[in-house]
Structures are given as C-alpha cells and as structure tokens.
Amino acid sequence: MNTAHWDTWDDEKLPETVQIKIDSEGNGEASFTVPCDWENKHNKDKEGQPRHFYLKEKESGEEFPRAYYVKNPNKTDEENKKNSRRMEALMLKVTDNQTLDEATEKNSAVVLGEELPPPEKKTLEEGACPECGKKHVDIGKPEHWVTQKPGLCWHACEKILMNYGLPNGSGGKGDINYSNAIQVTEEVNGKLETKKAKEGIEYLDKQLDIGNPILVGIDHTIGLKRNEKTTDHFVVIVGRGCNKGKVFYTFYEVGTRHKHKGTSNLNKFKLNKDNTLKGSPIYSPNKKYTVSQVRKNK
Smallest Cα–Cα separation from 212: which of 143, 161, 168, 266? Predict the structure, then answer.
C-alpha cells in the first residue's frame, strides 16, 4: 500500500488534510471531517438527508466522479446533532489520469465544491436486468444454423436469416455504396477507427427486442482489403445478455462445420465503452473479432 496526502478545501477556504492509502491501481478510501462552517452553510432545511457533492482537482479543475456522504451510522441521531464537527465518510477515486507513482508523489489538492442534486434514478423497462439496464434476449435456434462453404460466409449467414423467416434482402449490402449497412468500424492507415458504433448498437437492440437475428460483418485481420476493405467475415447475432453488468451479444459462427461450436452461447461480443463490439469464436478462441458492419433487415 502507498499513501497519498491530499489537501481538501471547502468553498469557505477552510483546509482539511486527508491521508489516503492507495492500492496498485491508484484507488483509495478515507474518512475526514467536514468543516463546520461549510456544513452549516449547506445544511439548511436538509437535516437528515444524504448529501451529494463533486470534487475538483485543484490544478486542472477536473471533476472526479460524483460522491456522497451521510451521517455517521455508528452514532444516534441525537449524538450526530450534538456533534458539530461530525465525521463523514466520502468515497472518491484519487486519480483517473495519473500513474501510481505520479499519484503518490504529486502534491495535488481537491476542492469540496457546491452541492449537486442527487443522481436521477433511471426507471427500468419491465423485464430489464437491474445490473445492465437491458433486457436479456436469446433468440438462438440451432436448427436454423448452417455452416459455410469455402469463401461463402455471407451466403451462409443470409441462409440463417431466411431460416428465421426474414424477408429476402435482409443482411445484404444494398448497393455498391453499402446503403443497407451501418459502418461500425473502418480500417484507416492500418488501424481500426470507430465510426457509427452507437447507431449500430441501437439497431441491434431494436431488432433483438422484436425477435430478429442480425447479420454483421467483422474485421479479424488488418489489411485483407475484402468487401468494403474492412470486413473479412460475417456472423449472425442472436442474443444479448450481461455478466455482472457488462453487456455482451451472442452470435452464430458459420466458419466451423461443428454445429455445437457454431451455435455455442460462448460465441460472444463484449460491448465496450465506445460502443464497439469485440470477441472470439469458441471454435478458434485465438481469433480476435471486431464488428465492422451491421447489415439491416428488410
């Protein structure tokens, strides 16, 4: 464990020194006393209510994640009222843009700022998972899966869509300009760049919610220059779930002749913060897939 010393200043310019133990990732936790003058100024008509605040790094002015404090749970309400300088617990991330050594050595400060309103409670859609906020969907039907012939992965995926009863033209590129495709990522100068990733996720979610599988293109090797010079292969997305709140999408892999591997629930794309999807097929876990296109249904 390392220790970082942070000076806290309230908006009345009253200092408090906080010693925070930080772990190998630079995260830490500490309790400190809220200055009495600051407490009195912000406590009017709010006795007994949880209080929400933000913290700013003094030099850069960068805001840290929203934090809150409540009354000391080990004391009675009467004891808390009598103690004008009561201890309050505050959880914060010490730094989110410095390495451990920099976080330890830098004599930074935070500003205890103006009170923020409590975070809004999002109303979950009926049936939505409380951890990820999305409904879990599994429309997989192994009897609809087919394996591809050499070089014909798109045709096999199109056949799966037809087996589900989707109209002719679903999963196609539309025209030479790929008017029926949402370009999620694109190869540019030897690297993948994010394009319409959010739009792609929104379309996937809408189609899954009404029970439709979706044909998607993937990039697995930079520089192959196939299709629109990014997409190297095609698969079909058939589900959405989460693992401890982290969303993933399951897919049917047509690049194997083994049905149990092609339809395995372990064929997953993990949803990243930038709305890109990355994963690997269970039949070849060393392959690294990134969704490049979402092909629309008709």
Answer: 161
Q: What percent of the chain has pLDDT over 90?
A: 55
pLDDT in tens, 160-175: 999 999 999 999 998 8
Contact 203, 209 (CB under 8 A): no
Residue 255 has pLDDT above 70, yes or no: yes
What are phi and psi for residue 120, nearest 5 degrees? -70, 140
Residue 209 gets the label, from left (phi > 0), alpha (psi -120 to 50) or beta, of alpha
Name the pTM for this structure: 0.62
Give the list of residues 6+ apart from residue 1 with CB closer than 8 angstroms, or none: 21, 22, 23
How is residue 12 written in tokens? 């009345």
The three-point CA angle 203-205-208 to 5° equals: 110
Where are the extended beta strands (E) located within the chain?
2-9, 15-22, 28-33, 51-57, 67-69, 87-92, 109-115, 137-138, 181-183, 185-188, 191-194, 214-219, 233-243, 246-252, 268-271, 277-280, 289-295
Question: How many beta carbons lie within 10 A of that of residue 49, not counting itself?
Answer: 11
Each residue's pLDDT tens digit, 29-41: 655 555 566 556 6
> Is 80 exceeded by the pLDDT of residue 136?
yes
Give the Cα separation of 65 and 236 in Å (integer).
Answer: 38
The pairing of beta strand 191-194 with beta strand 185-188? antiparallel
